[in-house]
Amino acid sequence: MKIIAGLLIAAAVAFASGCAKTDWIDRTLVTVDVTGTWEGSAGEGSFGGGSFKFDLEQQGSTVKGLVRYRGVTTSVGDPSGPIEGTVGGDVLRFRNHRGSLEGELTVNGDEMLGLISTSVWRSPISLRRVDPSSRPASPPR
Question: What is the reported pTM?
């Protein structure tokens, strides 16, 4: 009886640790490379919309770059400037240096879709890679 109980406990522990590893892997695995120039627009949300250009460079899961915004300037000012972020799986999360712009975008080939926000507004955004031929041949390791 003690042997059966011990086996059941060992199986439960092994199963639980296997689930934890999958979640950890999903959060840290980098399956896309966002290096390059991306252009697109944000929706006509409460801030009036506008166009964005992202110049990004990715090293592993770390992303650095520059965002340029052209559109209606709001009370939070122009969100253009340097950004930093990370890629986990196929999701890019970023924030500008002033903390006035942040976003979470899902990458699918040469397209990124997601949400960007400031302390005043939140809007959907759609970006496309400007020169798909400049895309790295395979995801970074």
Answer: 0.72
**Cα end-to-end distance, the chain, whole Å:** 48
In a domain, 50, yes or no: yes
Dihedral, CA of residue 70, residue 72, residue 78 and residue 80, to nearest 10:
-20
82: domain CATH number?
A: 2.40.128.120
Instruction: Give the Cα-Cα-Cα angle 78, 84, 86 (nearest 5 degrees).
Output: 135
Which amino acid does the sequence have at 115? L
Mean pLDDT by 10 residues, the chain (141 residues): 60 54 58 94 69 95 94 73 95 92 96 90 92 59 47
- SS3 call for 11: helix
One domain for residues 20 and 87: no
- CB contact set of 7 (below 8 Å; sequence gap of 6+): none
